[in-house]
């Protein structure tokens, strides 16, 4: 489920439609939609495209902007350096941010630096007035070699996502306990 920390509903206009007019998705392959192709093979659609389609349908007057800036394999510092400025130039009122998972899979993972940069980035995104959606990761530790190392990292990052969301008033989508992720069809051949 998704909720704003401290609230149980998404912001809506008086007519019940979503109030967002410009959605920008930031991150890595999770947001790019890797291995979730359009039926006609013209690229990846992924969750962000599906959400944007729904939001566009809910937009009054049909005026809705969307950009998916996510790039597979990106580490958090590159997402922040490359995608955040481009997103801010678009003046979105809704931003999704899902990055840091690739960093956690690396040998040289520096959790303190990563989590501080993550928190600073979310603070800066929220300071624009945009609503920000964050994600608590699904449990990938049972699917990957090195699960004993990866599991504690994912739990630590999920705790940080929750704390950052509480500090800065972000929305959180919690994938950790979602039973849908036990279905092997949800996972690509790389087990991610």
Written description of the protein model:
This protein has 192 residues and is α/β, with parallel strands linked by helices. It is 39% helix and 15% strand. The protein is built from six helices and six strands. A six-stranded mixed sheet has the order 1-6-5-4-2-3, sandwiched between helices. Strand 5, helix 6 and strand 6 form a beta-alpha-beta unit. The N terminus is likely disordered.
* Range of strand content: 5-15%
Side by side, the strands of the main sheet go: 1-6-5-4-2-3
Measured on Cα atoms, how large is the radius of gyration? 16 Å
Choose one word for the global shape. Answer: globular
Uncertain stretches: 1-9
- The first-to-last residue Cα distance is 20 Å
The helical percent reads 25-40%
Number of helices: 6
Total beta strand runs: 6
Largest sheet: 6 strands, mixed
Give the structural class: alpha/beta
Can you write the helix and strand succession as a string? EEHHEHEHHEHE
Average per-residue pLDDT, rounded, comes to 82
